[in-house]
Design a protein that fits this description.
The protein contains 10 helices and 14 strands. It is α+β, with helices and mostly antiparallel strands. The protein starts with a helix and ends with a helix.
Length: 393
Amino acid sequence: MRLNPTHLVWGFAGAAALIGAAILVSWLTLGRSLGDDVTRMMGTMFAQQSVVIRTKGTVENVTSVPLFQLPKASQSIRFGLRTQLDLQSLPSLIHETLFRVQADSNGVDLGGTWAQEADSAFLFLEVAPEYADVNLSSLKGKWIRIPSELSLAEIFGLEPLPTFDAEDWAVLKDALSKIELVHVERVDFTKVFDGDTALRYTFVPNKEGLVSFLTLLRERQHKAQIDLETYRAIQAHVRALPTIKGEMWIGRTSFLLHELTLHSTDWDLDLSFSELNKPLVKSSHENSTSILNFFQELGFNVAALPGESSLKGSITIPFLDFSIPGARAGMESTTVNPNDTDGDGLRNQLELFYGTNPLVQDTDGDGVSDGAEVTAGRNPNGTGSLFGFGLDH
């Protein structure tokens, strides 16, 4: 079949006219700016009692995963989550999440349930990771309790989630109503979710808005103004983020968020929001076992584990991949951390926990710092994996 250029031109022109008309009609019908729609949606969602969030995603070209040794130099990670979230508990983040994470066919395979309550977190593994030098199958099929004062992220050299009080949360919610985090490019199609007609909003992140919000986030976490160096670091790394495209399906009159998708060069993320205001169905954790027992069996020095207050210091933004010094009221800058004497990324108390030297960055002399080995899931004081630590000595 031979294509007529004139027909193609008129075809594209017609399609453009239809899309333009759809946008114009939506503006005239809704009578509001598209940015205001997103802001109103966030306020509407925060006002709900609870929600179920289903998440699935893929990350390509992964070269490393904290605590796991990947069988190949680069591969893809697939994951799925189903989270029951108590929205009125925020910022405490009370939830119960079913999860499954896999890396290609022979890589990481981890699955189970993660639950967070007011005073403790609980982990139930149905699929446990495998290591060549230690069998973790004993962790499967039982609830493991993690006390609130214990930060697993810090112990394994990762960055814990920020903690906020009610005042912080009120300030952050107010900021979300004023800072434009996304630029809505267009609104076009409609789709019905349980009787609620929704419009599709196509958007890109507003990087300047992200800089403003992340700056406020860090200041609220540390109750102090960040310095100029930190602000410029946030600004530079946000601007260097890869291109991200997104779509949201927002109720035309309800302003409820039904679906959210995000796409970038190396990853895709799809979320759906449903079952609003239904009571959370919680699992029973009556027969749970403390994770401290597991650490003790592996030979770790449990008595040296630091409390929550002693784990404060420099912070990182994981998805930006750079460190930010602790917030300070003045404009001076320093990256010295008194809790990490040798600067290897492992706090002094954790050096005692792992049996490493707090005055030497690379205790076992293998060319990799103690902190880097812990984060990678390797033994910082010898050979083998981190979980095989106690079995090797």
